[in-house]
Amino acid sequence: DVQLVESGGGSVEAGGSLRLACVVSGYAYGGNCLGWFRQRPGKERERVATIYTDGRRTTYDDSVKGRFTISQDNAKNTVYLQMSSLQPEDTAVYYCAAGSTCGPYSRGYNYWGQGTQVTVS
Asked: Which residues fall within 8 angstroms of residue 62, CB to CB, at 6 or more apart?
């Protein structure tokens, strides 16, 4: 079975930083896409950042460019999301996702983690 397990969420003051981690198991880790999505209260799930597991390309939503960084450690089958300069509007449940290509829509991803809450006050 494919499993994605997120960690690292929490509460932080505006301007602070958090790093999320997602450990991926049971997945063909290569030539595929890993991403972070978030769902803010009352909003649809939206893409935050994606990365191809072969390191070819990363993509960021405009709202997080320059503040968030997605990275991966293939040896640990882990993808990270370093979040800096956090703002209250970043408050959301953050989900790790895996799919065959790095598309912008959640429906394009086959596997999901359980989500981790990030609250910025």
From this structure: none
pLDDT of residue 31: 43
Query: What is the gyration radius of the CA atoms in the chain, in angstroms?
Result: 13
pLDDT along the chain (121 residues), means of 10: 92 98 78 89 95 87 97 91 98 95 89 96 97
In whole angstroms, give the CA distance from residue 55 to residue 9. 25
Per-position DSSP letters for 39-100, written without gaps between them = E-TTS--EEEEEEETTSS-EEE-TTTTTTEEEEEEGGGTEEEEEE-S--GGG-EEEEEEEES
